[in-house]
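Pasting as-is:
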Amino acid sequence: MDSKATRLRDARLGSAIDNACAKLPPGYEIRIVLENGCGWAVLQDPCGNDIEITNDEGLAECIYCAIEMAIEDNKELHGED
């Protein structure tokens, strides 16, 4: 990966993390899991249950997807539309 692509990837990941810190509903957590050659995120609801993230487009996109899933799950939990 060239340096420009690496910088763009890193910026997107930083932005995803900032978004998670700003937008996750109270009690929800996103855990970042890293192994040699791959990484993914795990979304946890306020009761401690893991919610499967249905995105495999990369770590930043996985985090963005987890944020949206947490927001939707929180709405369902509280009966909001």
